[in-house]
Every structure is written in C-alpha cells, then in structure tokens.
Amino acid sequence: MLSIGAFARATRLSTKALRLYDKFGLLRPAVVDETSGYRFYAEEQLEQARLIASLRRLGMPLAEIRRVCALPPEAAAEAVARHWAQVEAETAARARLAGLLVEHLAGRGRATVRLGLRCAASARPGPVRDTNDDYAYAGSRLLAVADGMRGPGSDRIGAAAVAALKPLETLETLTVAADDLLGVLADALREAERAIAEISEDAVTTLTALLWSGSRLALAHIGDTRAYLLRDGRLGQITHDHTYVQQLIDEGRLTAAEAAVHPQRSLLVQALTPGGGAWPDLSVHDARAGDRYLLCTDGLSTVVPAAELRGVLAGPGEPGQIVGELMRRAYAYGAPDNVAVVVADVVRLDEPEAA
Known about the structure:
By secondary structure, the chain is α+β, with helices and mostly antiparallel strands. Helix content is 39%, strand content 22%. It has helices spanning 4-11, 15-23, 46-57, 62-69, 73-106, 154-163, 178-197, 244-250, 256-260, 298-301, 306-314, 319-332; strands at residues 2-3, 31-32, 39-41, 115-124, 134-138, 142-149, 204-213, 216-222, 226-231, 234-237, 281-286, 292-296, 339-348. It has a 5-stranded antiparallel beta sheet with strand order 4-13-12-9-10. Strands 5-6-7-8-11 form a 5-stranded antiparallel beta sheet. The protein starts with a strand and ends in a 7-residue tail after the last strand. The mean pLDDT is 86. Keywords: DNA-binding. Residues 117-346 form the PPM-type phosphatase domain. Residues 1-71 form the HTH merR-type domain. InterPro entries: DNA-bd_dom_put_sf, MerR-type_HTH_dom, MerR_fam, PPM-type-like_dom_sf, PPM-type_phosphatase-like_dom.
C-alpha cells in the first residue's frame, strides 16, 4: 500500500487532486483508516491515476473522464478521439471569431453602409411523405431551417426549435460586437433545447439559423441542413455537414461522389437534442450588398445538383421567385424528402437617389 503522499509523488498528482478524484468517484482509495481517515492506495491504481491525469491535461471534464474510465480500452480510445476532435473544432471556431474581431476592430471608423434583408421562405412535404418534418422561417432578423426527426411529434420539433429563436426578432438592439452577437444566439439555442424537450425527451432536429445585426450575420448550425452564400457569382457552402459520410470525406476515406450514393449518407453524427450532447457550430459573417443567402434542408441539397442551385440563385428574380423555382426543381427531381428553403438578399437601405 502507498500513502496518499507517496501515491501523489508516484503519479505527479497533488493530494488535493486525489481527494477531488475520490469525491467524484474517479479514484477511490484502496483503504481508508477508520481512526485517522488517512487514505492509502494500491500500486495497481497507479495506471488509472496516470490516465485520469492525462485526460485532465486534455481538458476533459470529470464527468466525462468517469465515463471513459469505465469503458473497455478500444471504446475508451474512441471516446478520447471524439473529445479531441470536439476540442479542435471549438478551437477552430474561436480562431475564426478572433479573426472576425480583428477585422471588426481594424475597420472601426470606416464609412458604413446601411444594409438590410429581403427574404422569403417555404417548406413543403415531398409527394411520397405523409407528414412534413421540415420547417422554414424568414423574419426581419432571423432566417432558419430545421428538420425534426424521431418518433411522435417529429413534425413539431423543428418548428419548436426555431420558435425558441424568434424572440431575437424583437430585441431593441443587437450589438455589432461579434462575441456579443454569438452570445445572444447561444443563449437562444439553450432555449431551443428546452423547447424540443417539452415535445419528447428523445427529440432530434437539425438546425441552421442566421441572425442579422447591422451588417453581420451570426450563424448557428448543427446537422445536415445547410447554408450557402452566393457572392460575385460564386456559390459556396458556409456550413459543414455533421454526417457520417462527411466524416469519411474529411478523413480521406470517401470521395464526394461516393458519399452521394452511400447507403448511410443521411446518418447524422450531431444534431440538436434535449440533452445537449452536441453543440452547434457558431460563427459570424460580414455581409455585403448584393449577397444572396440560401438556407435549406437536405430535401433540396441532396436532390438538386450544386451547379443547378448556383444557376437558379445567380439568375434574376426576387427571393420569393427564387424560392418557388428551387421548390420546382426539387419536385422535378422527384422530391423524395420534404423540402424547406429560405432565400435572403442583402440590400442597401440608403441607395442614393437618381440625379
């Protein structure tokens, strides 16, 4: 047996840390003296203590460490890999935010142009569907699409998630600071988790939302709903699919063409749930006059080819006309799923009058 001091030196842990791990049930002493309360550890516990210390250095929460330590080695390795992938994603998101803040602060004092949105939305059931689980919303400040799934009430889950974000429309002011804008959106997403929990504890929905403030759009995204930006004639996807096949593409194990016909192409690895097991990607985007945004569910993006989407979006027409044309194209390809579409144009609000 090793005393707590000897065990601490052997594992390079403090006695305070060992007491904390005991409190949380991570590393119980092998023996506790009934009279003095002094703790003793077995040599066989050294390996587990070092594992816990390593996981703490990764920044893993104690509750998650408890789960990892209870897993067999192979499953534990997979859990650590998933944790680190999440850390890398969050670090990348913070890096993007830092870049946006640098641009924002460097741009202070420049002449500003008042911008606004003109938008339209529609959600329709596919011809082979009995219910419509897709939801689309376009307001003065908020744009969103969602695709609810799993069990009873699935047709209400996406709508409930977006409804929790709608109070953002009535805020008197939204600061232009990127971190404030993302904070407001993150708080609303917590409300969305609670809202879908009231429908079902097993509720699942994808969600892609853009929140407008001045000349910026805060983006929240989770699942396989998508957001695209058409700028200067070029169409780019500004969200990253949280799907099994996209993971395989990212790892170089699958091509985009192979993913399009993969039997598990609709399998999600992240979605909005009551338990908050995964958290949406958050970012801020600067808007320019002439930009056109498309938000859609996979009922459009997996059916209509990207080149055809670009052609429709780059063509003439107001947002309502573009939404109608995109719906028509989805139905022309058979619309095997429900379809939700939002199109928004960024326009100048202070156009000079003609001389």
